[in-house]
Amino acid sequence: MSSFFLDYQKKEKDYVCKSPWTEEIGKTMNRLVREKLKVKKGRPFFGTVILNYDLVILS
User: Fold this and answer.
1) What is the C-alpha to C-alpha distance for residues 14 and 33, in angstroms, rounded to an integer?
2) DSSP per position, 11-33
3) What is this structure's pTM?
4) Triad 24, 45, 59: Cα angle to 5°
């Protein structure tokens, strides 16, 4: 599990990590990220998104 989740309560972790992913979960995740992550000018910021699909079509 990502270190991003270390500062969150178990109920928040369980909520955003459940399946299926919904628009509401996505909005909650965006809010949590904005509350915790700080991006500073001149310092690189990297992230990873893992998709659990057999096929991904990029358009």
Assistant:
1) 15
2) HHHHHHT-SS--HHHHHHHHHHH
3) 0.53
4) 55
Token look-up 């991006």 returns: 39
Over residues 1-55, the pLDDT tens digits come to 455 555 567 788 888 888 888 989 888 888 887 777 777 888 887 776 666 667 7
The first and second tokens of residue 10, run together, are 């178990």
User: What distances in angstroms separate CA 19 from CA 23, 26, 41, 59, one per listed residue?
Assistant: 12, 12, 35, 25
Amino acid residing at 29: M
Could you read off the pLDDT of 15-25 as tens digits, one per residue? 888 888 898 98
Contact between 37 and 4 under an 8 Å Cβ cutoff? The reply is yes
Q: Contact 52/20 with Cβ under 8 angstroms?
A: no
